Amino acid sequence: MPRAPPPRPSEDARLAAYKPGVDVARSRRRREDRLLAVRRSNRDAGLFKRRRDEPTPTPIPPARAATPSSQADDVPTTTTATSPPSSAPSSPPSSPPAESVPPTAADSELEGLSEMVEKVWSDDTTSQLEATVQFRRLLSDEKNPTVIKIIRADVLPRFSDFLSRHEHPQLQMEAAWVLTNIAASDYTLLVAECGAVPRLVELLESANANIRHQAIWALGNIAADVPTCREIVLDHGAVTPLLAQFREGMKVPVLRTATWALSNLCFGKLPAEVQVKPILDIISQLIHSVDEKILGDACWALCYICDGVSDGIQHVLDAGACPQLVNLLMHASANILLPVITVLVRISSGDDAQVQVLVENDILNYLAPLLARNYPKSIKKQACLIVSNISTGSKDNIQAVIDADVISPLIFLLKTSEKDIKEEAAWAISNAASGGSNDQIQYLVSRGCLEPLCNVLTYQDADLVYACLEGLQNILQAGAVGKQGQGSTVNPYAQFILECGGLDKLEDLQEVDNDAIYKLVMKLLEGYWDEEVSDDDPNLPTSNDSAETVETASEDAAQPTEPSASPNESE
Q1: Which CATH fold topology does 22-48+109-267 show?
Q2: For 33-69, what is each residue's pLDDT tens digit?
Q3: Cα-flanking dihedrals φ and ψ of residue 2, to 5°?
Q4: Is the dihedral of CA 491, 496, 499, 505 positive or negative?
Q5: For residue 253, what are the CA distances in angstroms to 72, 76, 206, 296?
Q6: For residue range 548-560, what is the model confidence (pLDDT) as tens digits?
Q7: Architecture in CATH of 375-529
Q8: Considering only CA atoms, which of 554, 444, 414, 539 is closest in space to residue 496?
Q9: Cα separation of 370 and 367, whole Å?
Q10: What angle do CA 565, 426, 32 make, to 5 degrees?
């Protein structure tokens, strides 16, 4: 049966459908929108609180406990800020019936809570220290839900007062420890509002290394909570004394805690009075650390600065961080790769000059293995996003993508991967096809991009479908130019789109309730298939002739006229 001709729009509508080329500004806005979604999904991965656990008497500490009591090399919990915390509580081990469970030390101490409160509020320093240690022991047990009872005892202001008792450093230390663990709970705001923050900031200049470390830890937990808590810490000038902690010979455990606290302070919008350059001077050194915890938190801090500071991307580039960030794409740990590639995605969403810095640092050759090998889905998605953002730029950038042999793994992902990775790969291929030269289009087609791009036309994302249509439009235009140059009557790319079912998908899009998509679809249908009226038209090439035409076109496309357009001729 003859194919029904598509409905014809008015002449004005047809003229409006013709565009001079890819709308770069719209593409940049589109990639900014996608980046916002990526940031929201990743922001909690590097930002959470840490409880300081009770020291264990055994020589070898358990894997999840912080073991020191009063040494300067106190170690935070082994949970790192480079991987997201679990939202579900861990299942407790099975226990015997309630009547056979002996009372624990925490249970006994909790029964004497009233007595502990009396000692805390007494005037006797020995009693104050004894009771504060008891509170600290209760709070250091993560499985002992006593925080709310301690909160109700109204002792937080007293612990805050103890922070100013410079003549009793051990009492300061224990009080800071108590507040650290309360701040690691759901009651952080109470700690921030009880007057403890300015005193903790003051303790960053203490002569006692243990007290300085504990104050850093407490402030880091407070900053990791709601924006109000973080703003309280910033308003009391914590950044400058915190940066002063980064000194030569600093012990690794303290350096870990300080880097983590600094990354928490950098999350969100930094106030104008906070100087970014001193922060970046420190972080640009920390990203060379061999310690994964320090390295991961430093990279998250860079990501937060890119988002939370005016011209943050340029500040990061001016600090000279880009070469090392690109090198870190070879890191073996996904806990490092995630913050690293998140920073690079943010940079790739910047202006053309900022994107060019990535290209000049050879980022594409580092991305190719991430796309081709077995890496986590989140890494592959963001690698596709970076390629997509680079491809939105000039033809030189698209050529750089081709030269890095990134197209083949992208097309493989577009054909075989999960839906969300397919979508990111589709953006990358569509952007390259939309802005590519005729030789670059020829290379893309030779790698097999047409059929998977046609399949994208069935996706529900209207922006992605439109980008795909723009890519197909440029491909068809390149085919028309090649047809004229060869004196042929057949556009090989239009013919292949017809044979792989792409024409049917285009015609289905006439029913989509999206004016921009409809106009562009009409332009393609009328420009390249206006004479297609019947599946059995005698002028239509036979299936054998069609296969021969496509095969010949593919073979020709694999060898572009300019050698630089195909870096893989030997393959």
Answers
A1: Leucine-rich Repeat Variant (1.25.10)
A2: 555 444 444 444 444 576 665 553 333 222 222 333 3
A3: -70, 145
A4: negative
A5: 9, 7, 18, 14
A6: 444 334 434 333 3
A7: Alpha Horseshoe (1.25)
A8: 554
A9: 5
A10: 100
